[in-house]
Amino acid sequence: MPRTKLDQDLQELRGDALRIGNLVVEALERVLPMLKNANMPMCSTIVEADGRLDLICRGVRKHTFDVLTLQQPLGHCDLRFLTSMLAMIGDLERVGDGVKGIAQLLGYICPHAVSVDGVSADLPAVAECGRYDNPSEPEQAILHQCHALGNAVVHFLRETMNAFQHSDVHAARLLWQDDDLIDVRYHEVRHEIMSLLAGRRALDVGRYDDFVFQRLTYYLWIAHKLERTADHCTNICERTVYMLEGEMNMEPLNFL
Domains of the chain, with CATH numbers? Predict the structure, then answer.
């Protein structure tokens, strides 16, 4: 095959990967505000959008396989790019699945936020979507932590795609190391939730709300899905380095 055709295909695949990256960034940005103001129609919209994302990923994956099998000869750089594309599309697809999972969990939270006996005099008024207008202080703190974790993950994902777009190995290595900061935020959320589910604190938290423990469990799952998104970003950073330098060595940079 003529090199011009191969170059065109490689450029199209790079553009497709960036388009998918933008789609998952937008989906994550849409789902985060729903931590505080979830509603069933928006949850359903995000879940349905993941099906369209899967179709796009399937098409890009097929295109990549076609280039691998039909266009020969391929140089080492071409092979590294194409094999990395397959892995990166898989990671982006998993990020989209995670966003869909968060939307589904938020959908579960809405109808179960009100106690079985209805609105108690000891509780604030209940919003239409099923969440309290003024959540209890411990739960409000967890929501704030989850939202902060989500914002950090959105930034991490966006910068990961920027490193890929600009073939920036240095940025990819730095981002790979920054995953530890996401892990710290996640462990803070998990620690706070688990402390609320243990001992006398659990009795106090659940005294006036029959569904608070369900919500806390869902928040724990949401935090885990956000943390997994950052893990997928580190995979993409590794692949960015591999396609450009031909190695998977992601040892910390030495600035001395």
Answer: 3-245 (1.20.58.220)
> b/e map of 48-85 (b: 16 or more CB within 10 Å)?
ebbeebeebbeebbebbeebbeebeebeeebebbbebb
Is the pLDDT at 208 greater than 50, yes or no? Answer: yes
Distance CA 37, CA 201 (A): 26
Most distant pair of Cα atoms in the chain: their distance: 76
The predicted model scores a pTM of 0.84
Tokens linked to 219:
């928040």
Rounded Cα–Cα distance for residues 51 and 208 (Å): 39
d(CA 155, CA 223): 16
Out of 44-48, 141-145, 210-214, least confident range: 210-214
CA dist., res. 110 & res. 149, Å (int): 21
φ, ψ of residue 208 to 5 degrees: the values are -115, 10
Query: How far, in whole angstroms, is CA 90 from its chain's centroid?
Result: 13
pLDDT at position 133, please?
42
